[in-house]
């Protein structure tokens, strides 16, 4: 079945030629990344989308990534997401309308200038909101630079939606004493007036995959492989990042394993498909999942089934554009400002 599907995908790609580019996030299934022209982290893929002049950008990733590609590419290009079900739950944890209401509450409590930074894992309307308020977008590979930029522009940062990436970035910058967690809907939690007494205000969002890594997983790996290098994604909890040897974006994780000496052991604390790719790409390195194979699977990324990839490509051959991701024009320009600020830093 897989051979037949591969043949169909290759036949469609031959037919479409340079009209199509396939981008594959590091967390995509093997059957998707095998067909990708570029594989990378969110930042690298947004740059590839910006540089591409293909008529169709087929995005192996999740909705917010395809939206970003649509914002960055020109209007004549179409971005296609093979499954419309591929939505990152973390992106849904900070909806622009909610943030707008919370922002009003927060800014009413201080005369100081708050700069909002949203992680790439958010929808276009929130990116547009951040641009409007003088803020920007970041990914896990440049969050520290986004913070530096924000503190040049203003006095405080509101970081959305990932509290763990926000906290880990604050530690990286030696600003751990400036952090406060703020959930505007928790009647018992920090109030807006209390929140603005701190320089870094963290929204209550998280990744359901990375939050499941715990320190005991690292302890178990170190017992079993005393020489292991442990690398985790900065969406992991603070204590996990602290117990690891290194943390970094999926691109950093790929680089570290690519640079490893034969026989080295690297334990990988991120989505399981990337760990499996690294095992295949670097058989000379002992690549082990930080927490077994079972639970660290991103359901949103998994929605991009190779049968859907086949379908969108074959439909294109027939002249039909399916699953086009189009950001509303009123959000597009502003969201572009927030992304451009990121690409510039
Ligand atoms: P990267 O930007 O590191 O690829 O991460 C994206 C993501 O969704 C991590 O969960
Ligand atoms: Fe979203 Fe987490 Fe999946 Fe990344 S791994 S796409 S943050 S749910």
TrEMBL record:
[4Fe-4S] cluster binds at residues 88, 207, 298. It comes from the Archaea. Keywords: 4Fe-4S, Cytoplasm, Iron, Iron-sulfur, Metal-binding, Pyridine nucleotide biosynthesis, Transferase. Pfam families: NadA. GO terms for molecular function: 4 iron, 4 sulfur cluster binding; metal ion binding; quinolinate synthetase A activity. Binds 1 [4Fe-4S] cluster per subunit. Its EC number is 2.5.1.72. InterPro entries: NadA, NadA_sf, Quinolinate_synth_A_type3. Iminosuccinate binds at residues 25, 42, 119-121, 140, 233-235, 250. It catalyses: iminosuccinate + dihydroxyacetone phosphate = quinolinate + phosphate + 2 H2O + H(+). Gene3D superfamilies: NadA-like. One of its GO terms (cellular component) is cytoplasm. Pathway: Cofactor biosynthesis; NAD(+) biosynthesis; quinolinate from iminoaspartate: step 1/1. PANTHER family: QUINOLINATE SYNTHASE, CHLOROPLASTIC, QUINOLINATE SYNTHETASE A. Catalyzes the condensation of iminoaspartate with dihydroxyacetone phosphate to form quinolinate. Belongs to the quinolinate synthase family. Type 3 subfamily. NCBIfam families: nadA, PRK09375.2-4. This is Quinolinate synthase. It comes from Haloarcula salinisoli.
